Amino acid sequence: MSEVQQIDRDKLGLFVKQTGGMVAAGFNCAISLVGDRLGLFKELAANGPYDSEGLAGALGLQERWVREWLHHQACIGQVEYDAATATFAMSPEAAAVLAQPEHPAFLMGAYESAVAVFPAVEKLADAFRTGLGMSYDDHGPNCACGIEQMGAFTKQQRLVPELIPMIPGMRERLQAGAKVADVGCGGALSTIAMAQAFPNSTFIGYDTSTVALDRARANVAEAGLANIALLNPMDEPLSAQGQFDLVTTFDVVHDTPYPDRLIADIFASLSAADGYWLCEDIKGFESFSENHSQHPLAALLYGFSVTICMSSGLSTPDGAGLGTLGFTRNMAESMGLAAGFTGFQHLEVDNPMNNYYLFSKTE
Ligand SMILES: C[S@@+](CC[C@H](N)C(=O)[O-])C[C@H]1O[C@@H](n2cnc3c(N)ncnc32)[C@H](O)[C@@H]1O
C-alpha cells in the first residue's frame, strides 16, 4: 500500500502511455508487414488520398480489413487522416520509408527482421539462462531477408561507385581481373554488385549460414553471373582458395562468434603486399553512456543485438558476443593491428548506420 502511495499519478500516466506506444509499435511491425505484402503502402503512396473503400477496391481486398488497417496506421502516425474528407494519405517521407524499396531510407527490412524474431521469445529466454544464443539459421529465412533488404541500397547503389574508389588502385585491379572474397555475404547483394561491375574479376561469397547461402544462390542465379562462387568457410576455409586481392565484410564482425579468428583468416588470405580488407560495421560510440545519450538509433540497434546479433555471436559456448554496437572504431583498429595489419583507415562515408574501415598489410 505504501508503495502505491509513493507513485506519482501523472508520471504513471505518462509511463503507461509510453509503454502503450511500445506495444502499439510491436503490433505495428506485424500490421505494416501485412501492408507491405499486400501493396497497401505502395498504392496509398502512389495514388492516394483514398478512403477505405477506394483503397480496398484498388487492390481487390476486403474493405472492413483495410479500414481497420488504415485506422491503426493513422493513429500510430504512419498514414495521414483528413477528417473533412475521411480520406487517408502518405507524406513523401512516409512513402520513402515504407513504400519505396529503392530509397535509401526504406525500412521495411527492419520490420521483416523484427517480426521474424517474435517466435523466438521462449528460446531467447532460455539463452539468458544457458548463455547460448540463437544462430542466424535459427531465425529462419525472413530474418535474413530483412537484413538483406536493410543493406540493399549501400550495396547496390554505393559500393561500386563510391566505396571501391576509396581503396587505392583497386578499381583498376578489379577492371583488369582480381580475386575477391566477400565474407559473410548474406544474400550476396554486395558480391553481385561487384561481380556485375567487374566481369574480369572472380568473386567468392562466403557465409556460415545455410539460409544465407540458399538466398545468395537464388540471387546469383537470378543475376545470371558466372564469376561468383558461393562457399561455406566451415567446409572450405578462406585460405583454401589462395590469396585474395580484396576481402570485404559487410556487417559481419560484430555478429560472428569468433571475430579474432575471422580477422586472422582474412589477414592470412590476403595477398602479401597489396591486399586490402574493406570492413563495414555498425556505427556507434565507444561506450554505452555515449550510445545511451547520443546515438539516435541505439534502442533499435540494441533490439537487434539481443535478438539477432549478440545472440548469433553467442551461438557457440565460447562465442565473443560483441553485439550490434560492440565492434567499435577503436576495437576495429586494435583487433586489426593485433592480427597483423599495419594500415588502418576510418573511411569518410556519410552513412547514419555504418562505419567503413580499410585495412592493409602496408601503411
Ligand atoms: C548481418 S548479416 C550481413 C549479411 C550481408 N553481408 C549483408 O550486409 O546483408 C551477417 C552475416 O555474416 C555471416 N557470418 C557470421 N560469421 C561468419 C563467418 N565467420 N564467416 C562467414 N560468414 C559469417 C552470417 O551468417 C550472416 O549471414
Structural notes for this entry:
The protein is α/β, with parallel strands linked by helices and 363 residues long. The chain has two domains: 2-100, Winged helix-like DNA-binding domain superfamily/Winged helix DNA-binding domain (Arc Repressor Mutant, subunit A); 118-360, Vaccinia Virus protein VP39 (Rossmann fold, 3-Layer(aba) Sandwich). Helices cover 52% and strands 12% of the residues. It is built from 17 helices and nine strands. It has helices at residues 2-6, 9-38, 40-47, 52-59, 63-76, 92-98, 108-116, 121-130, 140-150, 152-163, 170-176, 189-197, 210-223, 259-269, 288-294, 298-313, 329-339, and strands at residues 80-82, 87-89, 179-183, 202-206, 228-231, 246-250, 276-282, 343-346, 354-360. A seven-stranded mixed beta sheet has the order 5-4-3-6-7-9-8, with helices on both faces. Strands 1-2 form a two-stranded antiparallel sheet. Helix 7 (108-116) packs antiparallel against helix 9 (140-150). The longest helix has 30 residues, at 9-38. 41% of the residues are buried. The structure holds S-adenosylmethionine.
